[in-house]
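FYI - complex with zinc ion, inputs then prediction.
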Amino acid sequence: MKHLDELKARLREIHRLQSAAQLLGWDQRTYMPPCGAEARARQIAMLERLAHEKFTDPAVGQLLEELQGYEESLPYDSDEASLVRVTRRDYERAARIPAEFKTEYDENAATTYHVWTRARAEDDFAAVEPYLERTLDLSRKYAEFFPEADHVIDPLVAMSDEGITGAFLRDLFGELRRHLEPLVESIEERQPPERSFMGQRFPAESQLGFGLQVAERLGYDLARGRQDLSDHPITTMIALDDVRITTRVNENDLTGALFGTIHETGHALYTQNIRKELEGLPIGRGATAGVHESQSRLWENLVGRSRPFWEYWYPRLQALFPEQLGDVALDAFYRALNVVEPGLYRVGADEVTYSLHCAVRFELEMDLLEGRVAVSDLPRVWRERHVETFGLAPANDREGVLQEMNWYCGRIGGMYQHFTLGNIMSAMWFESALEAHPELEAEMAEGRFETLLNWLAKNVHTHGRKFTIPELVERAVGKEVSAEPYISYLKTKYSQLYGLSSA
Ligand code: ZN
């Protein structure tokens, strides 16, 4: 098939440019001297521009057109039909965005981020407010290029999570609030578990060594990956055989580095198990941001914060830190790992309150896009919503609306749903894997994770980006996307942990 081969060759060239940009970005976060930043930003921008130009070349559109008949003659889920379908979707989306708009959008994103870092340090929302106004304006304008969408947020959500709409998310967050808010209330009536032992000094080197040992045992292939330090943990996918994670470590916090490492390992395992035939093609990466988070969160929470996991690992951790943990029993340690406590921050929030943080942010995105809340009112409304949801008010905007970068990276809308989609899908995958392999938890207690990894590889990883979220979920577990398994997982686990009567 001449046209298909030509399309693949073009796409693989584009991917090589993107891979090189990824590697430059990895170096930027790990080893680059600070003064290299300006030159590095220009290098990355140039590679990205070249990749974009090559992809939006009308010759690509021509090839896609020529391949339409061929695509229709093949099964929907074949690699070839999926490649043409997904590439066409990307191409048509890119073609709708005028070049001048893209430049304006990218420039606003870079400037706003830069201004935000200072605004946050100085607790000065007013400094970044005009840039955020512009971001809201550009987000609405972006959506206008997709007039067929039912809601202004739909095209913005589709940028990261194909197949999910604002209407679906409104229902989802409503359902999560209905179930999780009463659960948090019941938990708050209980005595909080003892956890002061978690704040002792745990030498960095031992923490890092332990984390990496766990990552390898979960299946992370270090011949095709590596771990380094960076300010924010991240996974960089340079190629299917070169997937790197980073972590950060704090000697007075045992959990930060470990769960950060397990989280990034989940992202890395996803990429390392995508089928080689898809390498370098638009379908040769993770399906969506939400599906990616479903992998990281599954390993971090459903595995890494579970009791079977620690039956195997806790004696090893105690052996590493005998002075700090020698007298702490497994159950006490397990309870300390799973303390539920409403707080001001999404990052680092426990499993039960985490999705409520995302709910607050998604609802604010809707309010901003629909014009019910003005950017200038955002600090006040942010504070009010946190008081309503968590009973806590941030003392300043640094603890409030300035706390995280997401809205200051170029768009409002579609910046938070993937975390929650990740949570709910992680429970769907785990439930289904457990149904197929009831021995799974007993294996985890023996330090064996290959049955779970193989299930994920076979049902999720291998498909790369061939399917949308609803398609992938239907194929893997035979159901529609639903929060029910996640809600029931949280109710069961935390009712046991906190001795609540009705789950
Ligand atoms: Zn992640």
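The chain has two domains: 2-148, 166-498. The pocket of zinc ion is lined by residues 263, 267, 293, 296 (CB under 6 Å).
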